[in-house]
## 1
Amino acid sequence: MPATVIVGAQWGDEGKGKIVDLLAQHSDFVCRYQGGPNAGHTIVCDGETFKLHHVPSGILSDGKICVVGAGCVIDPGLLVEEIDELEQRGVTTAGLRVSGNAHLIMPWHVAIDSASERRLGKLQIGTTRRGIGPAYADKAARLGIRVQDILDPKILRQKFETALAEKNRFLDEPLEAGDLADRMETCAARLRPYVADTSLLVERALKAGQKVLLEGAQGTLLDLDHGTYPFVTSSNPIAGAAATGIGIGPTRIESVIGVAKAYVTRVGEGPFPTEIEGADQERVRELGAEYGTTTGRERRCGWLDLVGLRFAARVNGMTSLALTKLDVLSTFAEIPVCVRYRLPDGSETDEFPAHQSDFHHARPIYELLPGWEEPLDGALPPAAQRYVEFVEAALELEVCMIGTGADREQVVTPRGLAGIA
Ligand code: GDP
Ligand code: IMO
Ligand code: MG
């Protein structure tokens, strides 16, 4: 049984959590393959809201194995808090498995993330300040501390000593390895039972014919290699990274479902061609409740960008698209959709510019689509249907799910749920 990737097709917050939660009900494994607590995946289930940061969005479905893969970075204190909150709310975390190869976010990573944003001033990236970039940087520099290091207190202490010899030079208040190891022990003891060889677990599940979902965090345009660098995250959200992040072969992945909002949002700094000018920006923000799940920041709002989405379809090899939050557009009489960019030299293109300067100066060319001006419940009104078909035609891709509200139940599946993943 092949695995399915669920990947963000814009700048994150596309509604991946809701889509994964829905598909998880028909799957056996749900695995996060990259990112860390910069992610905020919201699931609304019978009116109750859950916000997940590390834990895969399958945790609300009974009996699923939820893997945090090797490609993730984990803040141990935050993960323990997340587990405690889920348990207190009656959600069991017995199915959670954490890769021993995942890297740990340490207090110095968080401190360095904030300090470097402050130093950048006006040039800052607008990170979530969760220590993501510095943790991935240490992983690449081979200075990282991994989940498996918490299995042995002696090893952990030695790793702290080595790391702090370097990191204390950057900290306002130097840390002492012994103190830190003692403080970490409570957390470490809580996390030990969850540590597993997750690459092997997933491979065995696939061999046994079980259904495996690979859940992306962030989104394509935040990808370290293919996104809008330097205004990106420090991992690879795109589907190709799912195999490395979990530790399975790429031949195991057969379908890739992109998740995109019916418009676009972006948190943090960086270019955003279709960002709405004028009062409609605030109107979309209010209608869509566009405030960050992790940081509470206002999300910048823009009209749907088919140039960016076509790029996302390409670099992810998407096999279908889930279009979320269509309901948010229900009160607009006309809805602009960006079909091409005008570049600084006056030429027009429907391909995403490969050069940063072209993208920074790209101007959107819109087509105005008629709105439907009625709430979306049940079957889609004809104008909403045409909006979806317009997207399908532009991307040459099937829309398999349409979000019509935040709740688990508020989704239209034109061809049914079976066969999607
Ligand atoms: P993620 O990071 O991709 O999982 O997305 P977030 O959870 O950060 O942000 C998406 C927000 O939109 C959440 O508050 C969801 O509850 C909400 N949401 C998801 N799908 C829909 C939808 O179809 N309609 C509406 N109105 N809200 C949705
Ligand atoms: P989910 O999984 C939206 C953005 C930050 C910043 C940039 C780098 O909920 O879609 P980082 O802290 O990763 O170094 O910040 O990436 N960012 C996100 N934006 N959704 C996310 O996750 C994000 N995770 C990071 O705002 O611009
Ligand atoms: Mg989010």
Note: The first strand starts at residue 3 and ends at 8.
## 2
Amino acid sequence: MKNIDSFGHVRGESLFVDDINTNHGTLYGLAFDSPKAHGIIKNVDYSKAKNLNGVIKIFTYKDILGENQIGGIIPDEPLWAENEVHFIGQPIAFIVAESEAIAKKARALITIKIEEKPVITTAKEAKEKGEFINAPRSFKLGDTTTSFKNCEYVIEGETFSNGQEHLYLETQGCYAIPMENGNIKITSSTQGPTSVQKTVAKVLGIAMHKIEVDVIRLGGGFGGKEDQATPWAVMAAVAVQYLKKPVKYILSRQDDLRMTGKRHPYESTFKIGISKDLKIQAYEVEFLQNSGAAADLSPAIAERTLFHATNSYFIPNVTTTVHSCRTNLPPNTAFRGFGGPQGMFVIEAAIAQVAEKLGIDKKIIQEVNLLHENDEFSYGQIATQVEIKNSWTSAKNKFNLDKLESEITHFNNSNTQFKKGISLMPITFGISFTNTPMNHARALVHIYQDGSVGISTGAVEMGQSVNTKMLQIASQTLGIASSKVKLETTNTTRVANTSPTAASATADLNGKAVLQACNTLIERLTNVAATMLSIDKSAVSFKNETVFINGEKSNLNWEKVVEQAMLERVSLTENAHYTTPIIHFDKTKEKGHPFAYHVYGTAITIVTLDCLRGTYETDAVKIIHDFGNSMNIGIDKGQVEGGLVQGIGWMTLEEISYNNEGKLLSNALSTYKVPDVFSAPKSIEIIPLETTGTKMAILKSKAVGEPPLMYGIGAYFAIQNAIKKFNPNYNLKFNAPFTPEKVLIGLYEK
Ligand code: MTE
Ligand code: HPA
Ligand code: MOS
């Protein structure tokens, strides 16, 4: 089945926040933000801006009736700065005017005096100065200290992976309108409608029930709207509370780039020890996470880095530590993979370094150390239904790795200017919010009296096609055509207290709730149909909008049963609640079983370098991916392709750059390069791994949103491999992204 939005998207008919018809009298908001990365606000002169014709009011923290606080995990982030600013782009005030153009003009008229304080832009510097978001976290398995003594080879090294801009096509934005009795309705482009509702209520000093948040769909989120869609909605709501007029605020691309956080850059140091038989015996790593100026989701992201620090390998002795370092950058935030990719890059670097020292192929060490059934992760979970070796071997066989490698060797022997490189990248990614209490969802299903169906869940559609999956589950369970089912907007009055659409778990959590609700409804209708046909209910089933008796078609159809249910006053509505069983985690011990299951896969990446220019092309990525038993292979392959290309972008082209004053230099699409059709792989081949799936996944169809991003890490090592072919003296460096400049330097270093 196709994504149900595709028709509307290509015709430009799908609605996003900026497309909603505005009410009469709508006003337009715009944040005034700090031009300095750190300092004391000495004076802000709003007088000229206030006097501009068409400016209605300029809001500051003084206008807040509740708390000036939007921090989710840690209350360390004001909505509007009071006396001190901590990053360029930090909101200080909110201009509300009759038009966007007037608001913009007004913003240019505001002058500010800031007494500057020292600016920290790197995690290392923050650590040296003792600037942390919270206490460090550490996972331990076995005993690394003793184990290193018994290792044949012990190697140390360091890595850096840079941030990444989400670059959702739809920028952040919201539209807030006053309702009666001080209630406010907000349409927001958020992954977390409940966090918007909760934070608005807190800042406005009113109850959550007075705030309704509605989400139609997002033009992409990628984690960037899990926490950071909230401030704009809160600003608009503060203005609505005061002015009692609708307020719209859509960020311009440049404002969005400057003011929002990105993937966390990580600086890491590792020590890895292996035995003569190439088994990794011990691994120690210290991650320095560049968290930015406030916590945002950093502590949860840091935690997931630890969960994925050993990627797809079993290592008996592990000590991992992460420090969330406070810097003067916009608070960094969730981004596809949620800290996992940063952790996996380091172990892949460590293995590459070991292989280099021993003068052997990296993949030999990778293969020897792949996880087996019943191996223990550093966080105590026992690996079950492990498919990593299966995916690895399938990749080698199905894509004929030997042949690929001999072709590459032949190419490299017969070319001087161009060199090819290859890598294998295994992935193992845990599915569930690492914070166990967040793993719940609800679905509200109405069968209308004409037999059509409306479904509300907590899931937010952001291009990943979760709505299509929900619709498939309902139409399949109820035995009706997909055209009879409609997915409603995600709305806090219909489905409350939701977790954000994140952690790749949305289809599992909300899908299981939809399934449960539909099963309950079909049970009721089965009773009605059995009475109508005067047969036992065990004989009744629903298929193709028809009642079947012991598998034989009857004359009774779906509409008639629904009509009769109405007459008999049987409820045609069901609200189901699902929570993931089994999972738990004890933070005091850092042990438990946090994941419902893991997703596995292996990617083979082949690149060609132009050794004169340092440029490169990804020739092919060949993937064996564990979809479980995919419920929609077209959509799921789309997620693998999108995730892969986004991961390659992070590892190769996309270079976030701040200067020492904390100013974003890569502040436009002319200076920040995401993969386009020319830099995406020339071919992507995806073969589903044949497995039985897991009952923990919806219809045994495994979560697919984030794991494929980490295949992109393979591109880094394929490029490295190719450089080595040109310049055997090249010293391995682990400094992502591997931009053409860095490649060129590597090609010619002595
Ligand atoms: N795919 C598209 N097209 N757009 C997105 O914003 N977000 C990714 C992934 N795939 C995203 C996407 C992220 S970060 C996550 S966590 C998952 O989708 C969330 O959706 P799911 O839980 O339904 O997989
Ligand atoms: N993944 C993604 N988003 C989250 C998580 C997680 O594990 N925890 C909280 N938000
Ligand atoms: Mo995804 S980073 O969990 O929104």
Note: Residues 311 and 344 are 5 Å apart (CA to CA).
